[in-house]
Amino acid sequence: MLENKVAIITGGTRGIGFETAKVFAENKAQVILFGSRKETVDLALQKLEAEGLSAKGYAPNLNNMDEIEKVVQEIYETYGHIDILINNAGISSDKKIEDTTSEEFAKIIDLNVNAVFNMTKAVVVYMRKQQEGVILNTSSMVSIYGQAAGVGYPTSKFAVNGMTKSLARELGRDHIRVNAVAPGVINTDMVSSLPKEVIEPLVQTIPLGRIGEPRDIANAFLFLASPLASYITGAILSVDGAARS
Ligand code: NAD
């Protein structure tokens, strides 16, 4: 479904991002995954290779515009086009507001919001030139209902939705589609680090009776990145088994 498409995926070393890299590579995209450290990027590339899939990887600091612009320019010069950007890297929190420092709050906003802006700004230069592109963001179900702890996290995902809807309007005339996927509770490190007392009551409230798998989200990204979604922009697609946090 993505033959000859060049796709950059941030947070591509594990969890949702890694599974998306896998699904995109299976669908013949040229995948370029970004991670926070060179070692984890190399490990992810080795895992893909072991499955007969090839990809490239980088570890730029997503809060350093100069580093990002350099890497994105290198990718554009290598492949001649950048078709898909998935802003997926993210961190969460489940701390009470009194226990959260302003530095911890800012750290979440730096990665979950500012890095999304930085990556999008760097890639849009080339997508406008091409008059074509797809930008996909990983939001969350907490961007719709909020969350009863870790206020920085839902705040960041509300901002992701705002960027998604606004940039869809700003970039539509240049044939650049911008959408987000809002996952529910997904079986990744981010969730396995949460205590059972948090997860179990959540599962009870999910009408589909299970938490989601990374592939559930990767498949949604595949659909939104593909020509099947050619008239979809500005959408926040819930993929959450109808969960309500
Ligand atoms: P994960 O912790 O398994 O993976 C996070 C990814 O982000 C990793 O690839 C990591 O390298 C990258 N990352 C972390 N800090 C970074 C930094 N400072 N710079 C660059 N990259 C960094 O998490 P996941 O569950 O796969 O989450 C991926 C996305 O999905 C996040 O945006 C998260 O908010 C969102 N999400 C997850 C769930 C869930 O239940 N797992 C639900 C809703 C939304």
Features:
245 residues, alpha/beta, Rossmann fold, seven-stranded parallel beta sheet, 9 helices, 7 strands, globular, binds nicotinamide-adenine-dinucleotide
Describe the protein's architecture and organization.
The chain is an alpha/beta fold and 245 residues long. The chain has one domain: 3-Layer(aba) Sandwich (Rossmann fold). 48% of the residues lie in helices and 15% in strands. A seven-stranded parallel β-sheet has the order 3-2-1-4-5-6-7, sandwiched between helices. It is globular. The protein starts with 5 loop residues before the first strand and ends in a 6-residue tail after the last strand. Bound molecules: nicotinamide-adenine-dinucleotide (NAD). The site of nicotinamide-adenine-dinucleotide has 26 residues, from helix 1 and helix 7.
Number of domains: 1
What's the shape?
A: globular
CATH superfamily annotation: NAD(P)-binding Rossmann-like Domain
Please give the CATH class: Alpha Beta
Q: What is the makeup of the main sheet?
A: 7 strands, parallel
